[in-house]
Amino acid sequence: MEASVILPILKKKLAFLSGGKDRRSGLILTIPLCLEQTSMDELSVTLDYLLSIPSEKCKARGFTVIVDGRKSQWNVVKTVVLMLQNVVPAEVSLVCVVKPDEFWDKKVTHFCFWKEKDRLGFEVILVSANKLTRYIEPCQLTEDFGGTLTYDHMDWLNKRLVFEKFTKESTSLLDELALINNGSDKGTQQERERSIDMNFLPSVDPETVLQTGHELLSELQQRRFNGSDGGVSWSPMDDELLAQPQVMKLLDSLREQYTRYQEVCRQRSKRTQLEEIQQKVMQEWFAVYVELNQQIAALLNAGDEEDLVELKALQQQLSDVCYRQASQLEFRQNLLQAALEFHSVAQDLSQQLDGLLGMLCVDVAPADGASIQQTLKLLEEKLKSVDLGLQGLREKGQSLLDQISNQASWAYGKDVTIENKENVDHIQGVMEDMQLRKQRCEDMVDVRRLKMLQMVQLFKCEEDAAQAVEWLSELLDALLKTHIRLGDDAQETKVLLEKHRKFVDVAQSTYDYGRQLLQATVVLCQSLRCTSRSSGDTLPRLNRVWKQFTVTSEERVHRLEAAVAFHSTAEKILQECPEQPEAFNEMDQFDEIEAVGKSLLDRLTVPVVYPDGSEQYFGSPSDMASAAEHIREKMKLVSLKKQQLRQPEATTPES
Predict the structure, then answer these.
(1) How many domains does the chain have?
(2) Which residues neighbour 206 within 8 Å (Cβ) at sequence distance 6 or greater?
(3) Lowest-pLDDT range, 199-203, 355-359, 569-573, 617-621?
(4) Are 63 and 133 contained in the same domain?
(5) CRAL-TRIO domain: from which residue to which, for each copy (predicted)?
(6) Burial letters for 322-350: b for 16+ Cβ neighbours within 10 Å, e otherwise?
(7) Is 96 helix (H, G, I), strand (E, B) or coil?
């Protein structure tokens, strides 16, 4: 599907990919509903087109869909959410429905999306615009939702139109040029010339298409890896990142085929001129030969005996001269043909070196590690092609030098030694010049290769650092949801406390690993003289999750330590014998254990409060109730023990 076909629909901005990503690196798809009735058919077409743009790898990470219902009715929002089930069920992981400040009537919002999660295939949440940052970073949200991400829909649409037009024209042009060039590679030179139709020209001007491609690539790379003019780090949209290597690949293929096409035309023109000159030369000297031969034949027919021997000698001399002339012309023709092939290879090699140099002079605008690897592979392929071209040039040059060295003096005693020396010097000079140019390119490739490998390492560090944040988030989630039990006795609680310390050590190692990776990105960015994109996103996320984990971990330690103290004291009391005298004089232990137990029970009902003011509870209410029940049961046993100890004390005076 092409944007030009559905341009009126795309202009309505029924949905768009802003380039923002969620915390799982999934793309954010926004559906801004308006007061006017939204056409579900047009929205479906828009979604089909947008979802055809990202790569399969991007789709596999899932989409977060923001349905902006602040200016729409509830029934429209519900229809759109249900429609997503049929359009992109496998790719959607979360749908955030942005509700208006004045919430919809509860009577019409009785439809509970969370109950329909299994049927829908994705989770749906209702959220206010100012609460979206709980699920998506502000730097990944557009200004409509209080974020800082800039998105211009018409600018994006214009780029897509230019990109698709260039892709279509360049692909068609490549097919035409390949047809012309492949036809010129078959058979002998004469067959190649006959196979190329003089009227067979490309349907579009290659220069125009190349210029369009260069302008498009420049536009896509306008905000580069080093950030915008203001110094703020900027991440291109995913479709722009995908488009850049496609445009570069098409441009490289076009330049290669167009260079071959120009060479085919040039060789055809030279061949035509050479044949015209050869034909004129042949006509001139052959005409003289025919005329002289006819005159001698006429004299021989006259029958003058005294002239017969002399005439036959002249006729033989004429034949010898003609044979030598023909041999010299044939040798000259072969020499010129070898020179033509040598200079053709030299020109091809020169264009390859120009292309390689042009690629090396363009700043690297990487999308990710994979695109850098692809660019590096293309660079290595170009360098290998140059090596083969230089090897071919040497072979052609040596063949031409061998023919020149075997060249004899021309007729009439002409000495060609000086001329041959000039030709030899010229041929050797061309080969030496190409060798020097190739060496300079190799040196630049070595520098570029090192830079690109550093970029691969940078992206890897950023990716691993983001993964460390995810791991730390998972550890925090596990701590809150599964680390709930306080133990049934002091020994079990101590074991849980020791396990928790090991768990904290794992989290500490994960945090340290993430910090080291981010520090490595800073060093690499200093080496590359660029701005680290992680410093503005991953580092705050890592620190925020670590602070939340630290606070949660400390609360877990306090609860376990309180549980150890409670169980230890309770077990000591429960194990004491009533006959022991000191048991009757230490009733304050019961007051202490009751205070510790009540404090622990109160603590179980309090949430963990994070530095940003947000709150989280350990486990579910039923989990906390179960943990509290064990404490209450032991408190009852202690209370019963207290009563047992008081009974003997009360009956002693009577005895």
Answers:
(1) 2
(2) 173, 177, 254, 258, 261
(3) 199-203
(4) yes
(5) 1-153
(6) beebeeeeeeeeebeebbbebbbbbebbb
(7) strand
